[in-house]
């Protein structure tokens, strides 16, 4: 299953600038779109990879493009618009990169004189609002986001940009992840770095309540529910997502650190960007933290394990005094984003493979965290669940050392961008997860994984490059995997149509239908299905 090659380099099309559409285009359907599938698939990703002659350098720098596939009575349309962020609008106006992005420094305005340039050195960093990572609902509104304090409200029907929102104005965080948890009543939870007590750093969990009868913007009622401490006062860890069950919040603190001194200094003095502010702590390993969700109380249990990078939690659930935490990990402390420069990703296949061989190895893992600790058990494995090989050993210094159960592993093959039947199974015992298979960082298959038996189902076609699979449950579903999986696929080599929306039967990952479009679609990261 692991020996698929990409010598033709069709994946390079994922990183090519495209134009937005003035109005939706009709997609050509083969197969039959399920009649019950009504609504829109909304996804975000970069769509502009240079401004004039100035290139963006990193995967997370291209300007945000919002995509929508609409499903109605078996017909499909496709639409896309650039998000009118400050970063985009100013780049279009000045015909140059104006705002520093994740891996691209924006040079000062060449038209300014030496005095105004000198003073702009002391303005500090203008933080990017390039909302290229995800889109999610708050109340009745939809927001495109990245990981800074700025989120951008968009119209999910027309894809027009409504307004920029600064989270700092509502709640005490310096930024928030692009992976909030959204409960069935509409409550939104997220996590972000912040300055805690006496200048020490911390991580705040924020809660935004659902829309109330008074129709007031729920953002006005957002609040911090709990604060997790930081392993290093001056260097917060990079946080991309977190775990949530009905009673607990799980935060995994990895050794990928943000050097605040670098982050807060004048970047313009040394031409820095966000990537320049990351460093690895080679000795801490990984610390896991748990809090009670309703009381907002930290559990005083110190979970420790060996180093990995973590971007995506698969799911988390409670079972008989244990928390089961399923993660997509990358082994080691070196930052995986170091391998996601566009020059790496656009390289020829042999070079892509050579690079990936040095990178942290991907592995999907299950960790089991005991919640009830008895000092009498020092030296022993506390995990008594019959169905897992994961262990948690109480050490004499009162830390608990965790060893995982591996749920998916293949050499340089990642199970990533995990999705589940979120509405019914988030935070609960579950069986299936759907992921994007990365082959040396190139997305070349869709994979369904049974986390209990480790059985896998794969969809894969030559020279075809899919996106994160999104599960849509059948309206009358009886089982967890009754439904379809949606993914945007580009197939630059094969046939006349460069891209299509793929619909798979979630049971066995077999094709149900596809809706082809006449335009290329660059890489997208995350998104959602909005039912009609």
UniProtKB/TrEMBL annotation:
Chief place of localization: membrane
GO BP, sorted A to Z: retinal metabolic process; visual perception; zeaxanthin biosynthetic process
EC number: 3.1.1.64, 5.3.3.22
GO molecular function, a single term: cardiolipin binding
Assigned keywords, A-Z: Cell membrane, Hydrolase, Iron, Isomerase, Lipoprotein, Membrane, Metal-binding, Palmitate, Sensory transduction, Vision
InterPro entries: Carotenoid_Oase (IPR004294)
Membrane topology label: Lipid-anchor
Catalyses which reaction(s): lutein = (3R,3'S)-zeaxanthin; all-trans-retinyl hexadecanoate + H2O = 11-cis-retinol + hexadecanoate + H(+); an all-trans-retinyl ester + H2O = 11-cis-retinol + a fatty acid + H(+)
Compartment(s) where it occurs, according to its Swiss-Prot or TrEMBL record: Cell membrane
Cofactor(s) needed: Fe(2+)
An annotated GO cellular component: membrane
Pfam family, one: RPE65
Family, similarity comment: Belongs to the carotenoid oxygenase family.
Protein name as catalogued: Retinoid isomerohydrolase
Protein species of origin: Charadrius vociferus
